[in-house]
């Protein structure tokens, strides 16, 4: 199980969500803690300026994060709508 760390920009986006959207996104974030055992999440490694990051697709939103296997940590950097993140 990984520890989840959330950056300031991601927290700011989460604070603006309505309760239903917040629950959907937070449930997806909680599932990330079990990254090795879950295969049904839409996760993809990114290229270009986000080369070291991985994205999780949750509906029309994208969660960009990095994984540190040595520390067993997942750092969530950005949560944005699809058109705004890339």
UniProtKB/TrEMBL annotation:
> Which superkingdom does the taxonomy of this entry point to?
Bacteria
Cross-referenced InterPro entries: RelE/ParE_toxin_dom_sf, TA_system_RelE_toxin
PANTHER family with a match to the protein in the record: PTHR38813, TOXIN RELE1-RELATED (PTHR38813:SF1)
Protein name, UniProt field: Plasmid stabilization protein
């Amino acid at each position: 199980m990984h520890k989840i760390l959330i950056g300031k920009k991601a927290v700011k986006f989460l604070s603006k969500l309505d309760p239903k959207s917040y629950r959907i996104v937070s449930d997806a974030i909680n599932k990330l803690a079990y990254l090795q055992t879950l295969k049904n999440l839409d996760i993809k490694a990114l290229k270009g300026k986000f080369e070291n990051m991985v994205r999780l697709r949750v509906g029309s939103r994208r969660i960009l994060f990095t994984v540190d296997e040595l520390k067993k940590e997942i750092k969530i950097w950005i949560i944005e709508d699809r058109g705004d993140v890339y």
